[in-house]
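#struct-help
A.M.: can someone run this one for me? Single chain, 614 residues.
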Amino acid sequence: MAKVHITDLVLRDGHQSLIATRMRTEDMLPICGKLDQVGFWSLEAWGGATFDACVRFLREDPWERLRKLRKALPNTRIQMLLRGQNLLGYRNYSDDVVRAFVQKSADNGVDVFRVFDAMNDLRNLKVSIEAVKAAGRHAEGAICYTTSPVHDIPHFVGLAKGLTEMGCDTIAIKDMAGLLTPYTAYDLVCAIREATHLPIHTHSHATSGLAHMTHLKAVEAGATLIDTSVGAFAEGASHPTTQSLVAALAGTAYDTGLSLPLIEEISAYFKEVRKKYWQFESAFTGTDTRVLINQVPGGMISNLANQMKEQGALDRMDAVLDEIPRVRQDLGYPPLVTPTSQIVGTQAALNVLTGERYKSVTNEVKLYLQGRYGKAPGHVNEEVRKLAIGDLEVTTCRPADLIADELDKLRGEIEGLAKSDEDVLTYAMFPEIGKTWLQERAAGSLKPEQLLPPGASQEDSAPRYAADEFKITLHGETYHIKLSGSGRSDAAQRPYFVSIDGVSEEVLVEPLNEVAVSTGSDNTPRKTAATPAPGQKPRASHPGHVTAAMPGTIVDVLVKIGQTVKAGDGVLVIEAMKMENEVQAPIAGVVISIFCKKGDAVTPDMALVEIQPE
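D.P.: on it. Structure tokens below:
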């Protein structure tokens, strides 16, 4: 029997870290026969961002993916990553939903549940671990490793003891950003082994260049399971290469006993598959020691870069990475792992893109500051809390204790569309996109996002909003123009960011077609945008126009025409970068026009609601 066992991550974290979780099931199944022959301790193939990506982008049924993988991997454990009380969504769910989700995951093929909480709040793990054990499956309790003034070895050992008391079968040290150094890993593994006597599983991303050494020192300290990814989806923001670790341990007391030639065959297959997804390739494919400061996890970095590209702001990525540690400190040093990585990362992006810290605060940050995700590890910046939630009460109990059973309610909301409990749970994870997915499935209109052929322009993969792309012919020369964003200015001229034949440029535009169409309460003429073309929204032109801070999708309209609002009242809810953001009224007055509806894609220069001053 091998002294060290390997969990390979190519079917989940490998492609999540390098191509924004875009690998389709059709590209996994052909190689499963060889994967099943290797003798891996497990294959991580579900959970994490895969569920979201299946529904949101690939338009696949994530449950059907799991069933197909189970059939194709009869001899290998299938492992999933579960976010405790968050499951696979971005909020806490009621206990009955947690139990149902775990049972259905087990029924459809999951053998090993790696369960973690982004806050390392053990209260948020209790029900999911109980559910895993009740389903007769392997419960692996995960400790999210991070560094901060409040995180040290005794702290992590205390967490390991708590997971042991809950009945976990193994303990995972989940180093999601590659922060764990080799000698600290040695000391940490020794300390946890002494305190728990459970098998220890180490997980570390290669981003910082430390992970290979970290695994080796962890093995020397007594870790018996390690995470790797086959070479085609390894290194950079992903994980150490499986072949490298197999070779490093060969002929030692820790020999894995795995076949290098067979793993090389598998890697060669995935090398060809990866070429299909070139448009989603992460820019973070090499060593990036900045992660030791910004702590952005490998599973998030490619998604964050892709989201910034969709915002037309990839050139601001470095500023966002610089802002992330400041936001994390404000929030009390949460480990950066889903959903806290997305919460912190999106807020940092908002701070950068709006040009003012916390000018716009996502709903998830507000919930975090109310204690709805659990107890913050460190001290929260009270000024930021006050700015975000005012005098709202901060929760001190287990957050899910405040959530009544909701499974029956969810079934009622999706009745007629859901064909199974799995469909209900898909809707529970992502109500808006889940419902849309179920509707499109019923209509037979599900279509995955476009895969661009090699050589196509990256611009072709960007989302399009209104009339923002066109060709101009001037003096016999034709130019391809694409609007990628607009700035804000109080001056007559306003900056716009455009791509001209693929080259980014900034242009200054002075509007000349605005007309006075109404008056304020003092009878002063007030300018508003010219009447838009059908299907388009007017451009924002005065303080009463409500706009979004960044491109996104309308998920709720909170006001009606004729309604009186105060400055700061919620007007709209927009989803951007997978987070919901409440858009507030810029002035007090009466809502006289609403230019948007649920499901609309919007950009920052669009007027979405018009408020007439009192």
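A.M.: thanks! The chain has 20 helices and 22 strands.
D.P.: also worth noting: Residues 260-275 form the longest helix (16 residues).
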